[in-house]
Design goal:
8 helices; alpha+beta
């Protein structure tokens, strides 16, 4: 197996392209694909009858032995997928899942900022957890692949389990419900303490008032006076 864009790494395979060009295509013109295929089909037996320069074997006989050694194809076809790791948002959408499209995952099976694996085929988007669950499964959701960019592919069942806000406390008002008094919460045995904590009772307590001269006498200081301005003194 070779790295991408390194055609010179496997000369035996890449050399066949040059051989076909030199022996079948060079100096010839074809009016249709059928005529090109017929010319190639007539050339293949000539090529297979030759001895390979490296192996020293007849190419056709070596091909038969190689074909016998091949294993049968699996019953389940191999699915070619593109794989990515993406984070899940708070709305259980895989952010930037594929081609800037968002696909939902079950909210009860994931948590915000969790990494999920996106497997994209030509027609489907499959979302897998990076670790199997208790049953050994990793598949979270399957969606049809969106056409274009910026689409939201959402299964509304995946939102089951997200907070709706119904249990949150109201911060802009009391909701029309009477607010319990503090002395009611303390019980009938609270006595004077309940009266002090009662807002209505506090407003009825008389506050004593004293003139400032009383504090001057207690501290031995003179009353506070302001100096006359220049205009007043004149």
């Amino acid at each position: 197996m070779l790295a991408a864009y390194r055609p010179t790494g496997n000369g035996r395979v890449e050399r066949q392209v040059l051989i076909v060009r030199d022996h079948v295509l060079a100096g010839r013109a074809f009016s249709s694909v059928e005529e090109l295929n017929a010319a190639f089909t007539a050339w293949v037996p000539l090529r297979r009858a030759k001895v390979h320069g490296t192996d020293g074997e007849v190419i056709g006989l070596r091909a038969i032995r190689d074909h016998v050694a091949l294993r049968p194809l699996p019953q389940t076809p191999y699915v070619v997928t593109q794989r990515y790791l993406r984070h899940v948002g708070k709305d259980c959408l895989a952010a930037f899942a594929f081609d800037a499209n968002l696909y939902s995952v079950p909210a009860r099976k994931v948590r915000p900022r969790q990494l999920v694996e996106v497997r994209a085929t030509k027609s489907q988007i499959m979302l897998h957890a990076t670790a199997p669950d208790r049953s050994g499964q990793t598949l979270l959701a399957v969606h049809s692949r969106a056409v274009g960019r910026g689409a939201r592919i959402v299964d509304e069942k995946h939102w089951d389990g997200l907070p709706t806000g119904a249990g949150r406390r109201v911060t802009t008002g009391d909701g029309g419900l009477p607010r319990p008094r503090r002395h009611d919460a303390l019980g009938p045995q609270a006595g004077p303490l309940a009266a002090l904590l009662n807002r209505a009772a506090v407003t009825q307590v008389e506050v004593g008032r004293r003139p400032l001269s009383v504090y001057d006498e207690l501290t031995g200081t003179r009353p506070f006076t302001t100096k006359p301005s220049a205009k007043e003194s004149s």
